[in-house]
Amino acid sequence: MSDEIDSIIQELKADEIAPTFLTRKKEPESEKLTDENVGEYVYKKSSELVDSTLSAVQSLKDTVLTGSDPKEIAALSTLINAATKALDQLNKINLQNKQTKSNEEMKKLEIAANSKKPVLPNTTNVLIATRDEIMNQLFDKPSRREKLQLTDSEIIEQ
User: Fold this and answer.
1) Burial 120-132 (b: 16+ CB within 10 A, else e)
2) Rg (CA), the chain
3) Which of 17, 15, 90 is nearest to 47 (CA)?
């Protein structure tokens, strides 16, 4: 009986999957994080996170399909949820960057179109006149003003 148990244990040990998602690769020291390289850093680390999460999902998927441990199923579900959220965030960042680039291109096109419009020359001619004088000039009418004549008048009291 003990030989059968030992053989089953040996078979199970032979079928183990190495946890490749838990091993950490040695990376050369990267340069310090600054405002200029923060976008590149976020993309790099996010892609590494998504890759490791997806490989962990693949490893756990085989384990969950062969067994029915509720903890393993919950862990797989959490990993899938995390990978989905990470990919969604990367997609939002990508769409935002594309929108920014298209807005910049549209602004450049608007500026180029507006610069091609003819510019009216500046004039330094100034005309000072009353409204009536301008209207008379426009319509070529003689002046409506009548000359007043002063005469002696008598005041009558009542």
Assistant:
1) eeeeeeeeeeeee
2) 44
3) 90
Q: 21-24: long-range contacts (C-beta < 8 A, 24 or more apart)? A: 21/52, 21/53, 21/55, 21/56, 21/59
In 3D, which of 91, 52, 57, 92 has the Cα closest to residue 73?
Answer: 57
DSSP string covering 14-63, please?
HTPPP-TTT-----PPPPPP-TTTHHHHHHHHHHHHHHHHHHHHHHHHHH
User: And the tokens for 76?
Assistant: 């797989």
How does DSSP classify residue 117? S
Tens digit of each residue's pLDDT (9 = 90 or more) over 13-61: 666 555 554 555 555 555 677 777 777 887 788 888 888 888 888 877 7
Tokens encoding 157: 């009291």
- What is the identity of the amino acid at 56? A
Q: What is the pTM of this model?
A: 0.46
Q: Domain residues of the chain, as ranges?
A: 14-22+36-115
User: 83-112 pLDDT, tens per residue?
Assistant: 888 888 888 888 898 999 999 999 999 888
